[in-house]
Amino acid sequence: MARVVVDVMLKPEILDPQGQAVQRALPRLGFEGIADVRQGKRFELEVEGPVDDAALARIREIAETFLANTVIEDFTVRIEADQAADAALAAQAES
Amino acid sequence: MARVVVDVMLKPEILDPQGQAVQRALPRLGFEGIADVRQGKRFELEVEGPVDDAALARIREIAETFLANTVIEDFTVRIEADQAADAALAAQAES
């Protein structure tokens, strides 16, 4: 099973109070040198079957229609190899 | 300025009601073939100065102490090239 990751972040021009709160807290906690923090969401989707262009187009539609609010958020879709699944396959191949 | 991304996800053994809600909604909305959805957080940190091993160790400490709750969450830290900054540098180099 393949894993597809959808990252959803506020657009750069949109104020991010959560990220700002983290960024302002860092110096108080002894961490200097972080100029900016933005906080967003990460979705991991386990896809049944092959992740071909059609599947990716469908996932982009999912992301656009209801994982992200495209008025204020940008999203990216990318395939991530499921290491656990790969390891399981490798173990099967060995046995 | 370099960008470091911290991904924070619930540990696999921890129930993820947000992700489950998304996963259950998908078939109702006409999207089949997504076996599982997990929802987590993504932090983008803009780091001043070079991102060397010391900086990464400090960011791992930030992630561990207060971006993630390591009792229930796993986190990963990785460097991401800031494309906007790269483009700006390239433009400067050209001019």
TrEMBL record, chains A, B:
UniProt keywords, alphabetically: ATP-binding, Cytoplasm, Ligase, Nucleotide-binding, Purine biosynthesis
An individual GO BP term: 'de novo' IMP biosynthetic process
One GO cellular component, as annotated: cytoplasm
A GO molecular-function descriptor: ATP binding
Catalytic activity: N(2)-formyl-N(1)-(5-phospho-beta-D-ribosyl)glycinamide + L-glutamine + ATP + H2O = 2-formamido-N(1)-(5-O-phospho-beta-D-ribosyl)acetamidine + L-glutamate + ADP + phosphate + H(+)
Location within or outside the cell: Cytoplasm
Pfam families noted in UniProt: PurS
Enzyme nomenclature, EC number: 6.3.5.3
Enzyme class: ligase
Functional pathway: Purine metabolism; IMP biosynthesis via de novo pathway; 5-amino-1-(5-phospho-D-ribosyl)imidazole from N(2)-formyl-N(1)-(5-phospho-D-ribosyl)glycinamide: step 1/2
Gene3D superfamilies for this protein: Phosphoribosylformylglycinamidine synthase subunit PurS
Main location: cytoplasm
Quaternary structure and partners: Part of the FGAM synthase complex composed of 1 PurL, 1 PurQ and 2 PurS subunits.
Function, in words: Part of the phosphoribosylformylglycinamidine synthase complex involved in the purines biosynthetic pathway. Catalyzes the ATP-dependent conversion of formylglycinamide ribonucleotide (FGAR) and glutamine to yield formylglycinamidine ribonucleotide (FGAM) and glutamate. The FGAM synthase complex is composed of three subunits. PurQ produces an ammonia molecule by converting glutamine to glutamate. PurL transfers the ammonia molecule to FGAR to form FGAM in an ATP-dependent manner.
Family listed: Belongs to the PurS family.
Protein name, as recorded: Phosphoribosylformylglycinamidine synthase subunit PurS
